[in-house]
Hints:
The complex is a heterodimer.
Chain A lengths: L2 H16 L8 E6 L2 E3 L3 E5 L6 E5 L8 H8 L4 H5 L13 E5 L2 E5 L11 H18 L7 E6 L2 E6 L1 H5 L2
Parallel strand pairs in A: 6-7
Antiparallel strand pairs in A: 3-4, 5-6, 7-8
Helix pairs in contact in A: 2-4
Chain B lengths: L1 H12 L2 H17 L6 H51 L9 H14 L4 E6 L2 E4 L11 H9 L2 E9 L2 E12 L11 E11 L1 H51 L14 H57 L6 H31 L7 E5 H11 L6 E4 L5 E5 H18 L4 E8 L2 E7 L7 H6 L20 H11 L3 E4 L9 E7 L7
Parallel strand pairs in B: 7-9
Antiparallel strand pairs in B: 1-2, 1-5, 3-4, 4-5, 6-8, 9-10, 10-12, 11-12
Helix pairs in contact in B: 1-2, 3-4, 3-6, 6-7, 7-8, 8-12, 9-10, 10-12
Amino acid sequence: MTRPRALAVCCLLAVSATGCGIRPTGVTDGGAAPTGISQGMRVYFASDSGPRGVSRPDARITDLNAAFKLLLAGPTAEERAAGLANLVTRDQAFSATSRRGNVTINAPGHYAGSPQDQSTGQLVCTVARAEVLLHGTRPDKVQVTVVGADGRAGPYQCQQFLSR
Amino acid sequence: MTRATRTSPGDSTTPEPAAKTGGRRAASARVRLPRIGGLRGRLIVTVVVVALISAVTATALAYRESREAVLKRAQSAAVDDFRNSVERLSPELDVPADPRSLARFADEVSSGLRGSLVVARYREITAVSAPSADRTRLTPALRAAVRSHSRVSIQRVEQGGQPWLALGAPVGLDAPARHGSAARPSGVEVYAVVSLAEEERDTAELVRSVQGGLVPVVLLSAVLALLAARTALRPVRRLARATRRLATGELTIRVEEKGRDELAELAHTFNETAGALEHSVGELREQEALARRFVADVSHELRTPLAAMTMVSSVLEEDADQLTPDTAHAARTVSAETAKLARLVDDLIEISRFDARAVALTVHELDLAEAVRATLAARGWSDRVEADLPPGIRARADRRRLDVIVANLVGNALRHGAPPVTLTVRAAEDWLTVAVADHGPGLAPETARHVFDRFYKADSARARSEGSGLGMAIALENARLHGGTIEIAPPAPGVGAVFTLRLPLRTDSAS
């Protein structure tokens, strides 16, 4: 091998070793797509970071009141382990009615606090979800009013409780 | 090597120690300045280049492998983070999605991905975790892939000199629990751009460490090459020195045969060659010595009978007038030929003594004009030669040998040249010159080249001329004995042959 050619090979190797950092690539596959957007019923429980929804895909609800039953059933053991808890007290005669997306919850023993109150958020979001499923209302069009022990509160949107 | 060869003519005449130091001097000069063209330079360059190639190749391969591993791990970690984050947060997302919930979703996914840029899209709604961020890192190719495949698509892009990993995936419906079955599309697409700067820093660090390691590798290989060159070059140099000394006639020189490699083989061959040369040169010298001794012996053996014959023939010649004309002619011829033979034998003996180096100068202080005049007078040439003899030139020389030289030069001019013959003696600085010129046709170049050879006759037709054919050879030997020479002037128009004897004015008696 003549000297110039050897030097050229060396330079080429050196450049190929040092010159390329991280090269751009084309689009490659990264595995299965994430899933999890639920079309079924969703129940909201309290967590450290505000109300969080968990899906109940097998639940069949026929009216808004059925949503309370799901809520009162509480989180599963798995969900409890993940830090979810039910703050809605059990023995209350809940009832809910809706008219064109405007939902009214009658909760005689419930003290509806501010939008920071997670138990109110649980009620609002769970019932709003049921309203969406039952009447096909757009989620952002659902307005929930809570009539509790200390009078009317709201109308609320579920988002108000979720976004801190 | 060139340098060594250049110094060799000087070394050839100097005695052994001088030659040795000369060789060492050349060697040390080569060590200080290794020439690229030499064997050493070539060896070093080759070894360094090979070391460089192998080091660079190995590190390049290792670098590529480790970079791929680093990137692969970073990518799969990013994909896992992305998927987990999206799957954890997507239960709270409603479809059809509204801008507020989508923005919240994007924000939360972003906070789960070390604050990377996250873009969530649902139909015409687009939510960005950092609205001011540049979204061109999400290439059209990635968007198209996300729209057409319900998989996580990833792409490495470079922007602003920084590497980024862009991820994108449609978010499927259904719960995470039902992973196995194909998820129905929800229409929500999530993109994330994760920085790979840290990974690039890591790999760049690797390259830097490799670059730092290359310099010691090159230095080490150069040192190793130097050592290897030493082991290869030392025997070669020894061999070269031995060859030089062999050329100067030191036929007994041998080199050491060490090891079993090619160099040892070469040394062996050299020794064999030197041995064969020594043998045949020895034989030749022996034969030459025998031949010379033979000539000397024959000449000596001829001397006594010749003396008797000369005596007889001179008696016969003296009495020739009283003999019959035929007998008288025969007697004169015999006398002449005997005289010639006697001169030839004398010349032969003289030459033999030169060859046997058995001659010595007998140096006297003499007046040159007087010595030359005596030479001419003794041979009866005084009136045939125009001698230009400035008085007062004194020289130290062997009178008899000077006489032989001058007599041969003048006799040659008289015999073969044309008159007038001129003789000019000059002294300048430390040298004495005696120029003998005739006005004949001069010497042909071929003749001039051989005129000092033994038994050379310029005119082959005159094979039986008066000279023995040894005169000029003897003259030259005598001049050399004085430390001088005889030169022939180059042919010039109007001048015949010009022989110039150059002698040092002071010749030391020890020759």
